[in-house]
Design a protein that fits this description.
This protein has about 325 residues and is of the alpha+beta class. It has twelve helices and eight strands. The strands form two sheets. It has a four-stranded mixed beta sheet. A four-stranded antiparallel beta sheet has the order 3-4-5-8. This is DNA mismatch repair protein Mlh1 C-terminal domain-containing protein.
């Protein structure tokens, strides 16, 4: 237990990207508060262990450059920028056809649930002030808004996963991460530790094939999916990701399995700093994001009711 933090801290000291395919990779009233990113908000309930957050580690990434052949799958097919940072998708193989059909179904659900006005807001807003990972102030069309960047980025990464499914880049850990060491932060029961570890190992083929989440038979995590170029998730969330994969995913139903895993990885990749939010905002401005209509009713985007004279005085 004493060495868990120390060992996890240096797993991300050297992260390299490998690419096997040679590709480079309204609004509620102003009286409401923006809900914090909690397990009970905007997501199914799931275990949240109260552990002291660990500091982020400076990472070094070696990006293997390749050709830009092949079209990049945009989330809404609205951008022609070849320098987009989302990892490009390749043609699906015959073996992936069934999963591909399920992914297309989920893509249609995302498109049907989108709010066009909110999508324009998110893809055209200007960041005014980053308060913390649960609150930013933004402006759009002479209006000011409060937003929850953690929830918004989680939904964004969910859509990235769905639209780039099966063709992610690779983040290789400098040293394997012990599943047992991570699960020790969740429980001290030897029986539960074995059950949690076996639950992940039993699904190692699916995790590696679909998400490039490589787990060895002896319970060592070797790699993570790269969703966005030069974006490294917060290492302190890794035990929670593993725990949720072991306990929160419905493996029996294929569509539920895909959605569940996509949600867990999206939560893992959601922003935790201003720098990460600025990276996500840069992609939002490329018209990649379709805001679900329930995000407004949940209070994660709030329009501030400022008088016109206030707005005019602050825009000059």
């Amino acid at each position: 237990m004493l060495s868990v933090k120390a060992t996890l801290d240096h797993y991300f000291k050297k992260v390299s990207r490998k690419d096997d395919h040679d590709h480079q990779s309204v609004l509620p009233t102003s009286q409401q508060e923006v809900p914090k990113h909690t397990p009970d908000s905007h997501r199914p309930q799931r275990h949240r262990k109260n552990t002291k957050p660990w500091p982020l580690i400076e990472t070094k990434k070696t990006v293997v450059s390749g050709s830009k052949e092949g079209a990049v799958r945009r989330l809404n097919k609205a951008s022609d920028d070849d320098d987009i940072d989302v990892v490009p998708i390749l043609e699906k193989s015959v073996e992936e056809e069934e999963d591909f059909k399920r992914i297309v179904q989920i893509q249609k659900e995302i498109n049907q649930a989108k709010d066009k006005n909110l999508s324009r807001l998110l893809t055209g807003h200007e960041l005014i002030e980053y308060v913390d990972s649960n609150l930013v102030v933004s402006a759009y069309n002479d209006r000011y808004y409060l937003m929850n960047p953690s929830v918004i980025s989680e939904e964004f990464f969910y859509q990235v996963i769905i639209h780039q499914f099966g063709q992610f880049g690779l983040l290789t850990l400098s040293e394997p991460v012990s599943l047992r060491a991570c699960f020790c932060l969740m429980t001290q029961s030897e029986q539960e530790l074995r059950q949690l570890q076996n639950a992940v190992i039993d699904q190692r083929d699916i995790l590696n094939h679909q998400f490039r989440f490589s787990v060895t038979l002896d319970g060592q995590l070797e790699s993570l999916p790269m969703l966005i170029k030069n974006y490294v998730p917060s290492v302190e969330r890794l035990p929670l990701l593993l725990y949720n994969i072991a306990t929160q995913v419905h493996w029996e139903v294929e569509v539920d399995r895909l959605k569940g895993l996509a949600r867990e990885f999206a939560l893992f990749y959601s922003i935790g700093s201003k720098m990460q939010w600025e990276q996500v905002v840069g992609l939002l401005h490329q018209n990649l994001f379709q805001v679900p209509n329930d995000m407004a009713s949940s209070g994660y985007l709030i329009e501030l009711d400022f008088p016109p004279q206030f707005i005019n005085s602050h825009s000059t």
